[in-house]
Structures are given as C-alpha cells and as structure tokens.
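Quick review question:
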C-alpha cells in the first residue's frame, strides 16, 4: 500500500494539534511516524449529540497503555506482534485514512487505586487504571505504529483525572484552541 501523506505540514507534529472540521464534525489527525502503510490516521468523536456528558482528552499513548495494563477487570490485549496476521491486516485497513468512513476514537473510563508497597498500603500512593469501553485494538495498534498521542473520549467527571494521569504535553493548549475554533 502506498504511504498517504498528511496535508498538514512536512514535519510530523510532536504535540497534538486542534481537530480539523470534517463533514460530520471535528476530525483529529494522529501522526504515525513509524508506520509503513500510511503516516497518519483520522479519528472522530464517539458521542456527538448536543448535551453529551463526554469530553475528548488528548493523552500520551504510552501513559494510557500503562494504566490500561493495570486493568484486572477487563479484557487486556496482547502486544500487536502477537496478533494473528488477519487481525493486523483488518485493523490496518479499518484505520486507513483513504477510507471514506472516519473511525471513532477510543472510549475509556479511568479510576485510581492504591499503589503497591507500603506507601500504597498506607493510602499515600495511587496509580491510574484505564478500562477501554471501545477502541483498545485501535489504541494498541496506533502505539505499535508510532503514535505518541491519541484523542480519547471519557465521561466529563473522569476527564480531569485522565488529564492528570495520562494527558499529553501541550494538551491543555490544544483543547483550548479547539474549543475556541468551535465557538
């Protein structure tokens, strides 16, 4: 498959940029510097109706997956290199930016629990635990493909904790710019 070039700039941005406006609402462009098939993906919101109580948070993908690996109540995937060839091909085709359909961004929940060791036992140390409600394959594939950050959707009451524990560098500025663009 030929490499699709991004229409934004010649250099891959290292920090998130505000979403672009598409026909069905904002579209986030996530650069993939280590991917052979294409150099970016497009993602859209899960919850798009007015009055939704969900927010988009741009996260550091490495931090998000560290928190997701702590989830002992949900389905945690193996590394992409251990996936069946058909699964890898399917997700690659699903995320291809040349497709007319724009995939939805992952939808997550986040909580805190006590950390390990004496500090955790005493309630002084806590760690984040992320559970994917949808999009775990996308997130793990994009990390494998070199994505550094990713927009995810989360309930508004969990958004501050997700920003605190997994927020990407420059995320607050990007979110503020995106809100100003939408107004």
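Suggested answer, residue by residue:
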């Amino acid at each position: 498959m030929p490499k699709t070039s991004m229409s934004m700039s010649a250099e891959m941005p290292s920090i998130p940029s505000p979403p672009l406006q598409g026909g069905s609402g904002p579209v986030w462009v996530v650069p993939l510097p280590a991917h052979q098939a294409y150099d970016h993906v497009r993602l859209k919101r899960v919850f798009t109706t007015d009055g939704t109580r969900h927010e988009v948070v741009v996260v550091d993908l490495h931090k998000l997956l560290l928190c997701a690996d702590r989830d002992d109540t949900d389905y945690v995937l193996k590394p992409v290199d251990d996936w069946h060839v058909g699964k890898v091909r399917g997700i690659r085709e699903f995320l291809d930016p040349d497709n007319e359909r724009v995939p939805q961004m992952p939808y997550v929940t986040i909580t805190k629990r006590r950390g390990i060791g004496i500090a955790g036992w005493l309630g002084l140390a806590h760690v984040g635990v992320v559970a994917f409600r949808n999009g775990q394959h996308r997130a793990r594939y994009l990390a494998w493909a070199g994505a550094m950050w990713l927009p995810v959707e989360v309930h508004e009451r969990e958004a501050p904790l997700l920003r605190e524990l997994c927020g990407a560098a420059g995320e607050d500025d990007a979110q503020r710019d995106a809100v100003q663009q939408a107004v």
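Why it works: Residues 1-15, 174-183 have pLDDT under 50 and may be disordered. The chain has six helices and seven strands.
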